[in-house]
Amino acid sequence: MPLPPGTPDLDVLDLLVSVAELGSLGAAARRHGISQPAASMRISALERRLGLTLLDRAPTGSELTDAGRTVLAHARSVLAAVDALVDDVARLRSADAPRLRIAASKTIADHRIPHWLAALRTDHPEVVVALEVENSTQVAALVRAGAADLGFVEGPHPPTGLGSRVLGADDLVVVVAPNHPWAHRHSPVTLTELAATALLWREPGSGTRDTVWDLLSTAAPPAGPAAELGSTVAIVAAARTGMAPAVLSRLIAAPDLVTGTLVEVPAADAARLTRKFRAIWRRNTPPAGTGELLVRRAARLENVRGAATIPPDRPGQPSTSP
Where are any strands of DSSP class E within 138-213? Predict the structure, then answer.
């Protein structure tokens, strides 16, 4: 249905409301970023279109006529309806936007996810991503329960019963405080020595803990922990005190290694001190759409980064990728 002849533009109705609120054409013009003559011309054009006098103009300001006040009431209703329309359209767009629920281990969430999401958003800015951060075991549980569409974990092997894809690998380093006896040693520390040493450990379920525990167990049963701490921040803080050595992701240890608040201890089996970053999903719902795009972007970036050589899965622990 075409608009009736003489229908005013929304912009000039908004200008009329500003004149009423501010009391002068000059003030209304400044609010709308136009000159006073331009504002006066637009109101005059509206008056001609409607065949009504809307303003009594005076040197001290502008006052609406009776007809102007009637038109003002309708203008406010029309503008309010337009605002409601714009808000509803925005909500509809938001509801229709592709959504992806992901869960990630702490290290991946802090150091890798931002880069992966930035790469995804470059080509697909419409995707809305919700991220939950837990340790690797908890991430796998969220994926199994359907509370996350996709998970990202670290560890020596894929979680049982889930599909997975190795995205890349991360170096692990042995670190101590500068006053620790190992800080000045010349011979590399062996896996047997590490296994016999009380280390600072993450809590059970951490991908870093599982990786280090499995590796040390190939040399000897690991000794009891100097402490079990629930975050890498706490591990780093405890290591700085000289309490005990820790085995950390190089991504996490890097700032302290640069400043000298932690010292890297050479390791005899440095090539084996790596852990894999994996994408995981329910076997019956492999990544599709935005989830598949995110996995591809992540794998591409990790391949470019090439921080470490990805070791093969050990016999008896095959990949569960479909």
Answer: 150-155, 162-176, 200-202
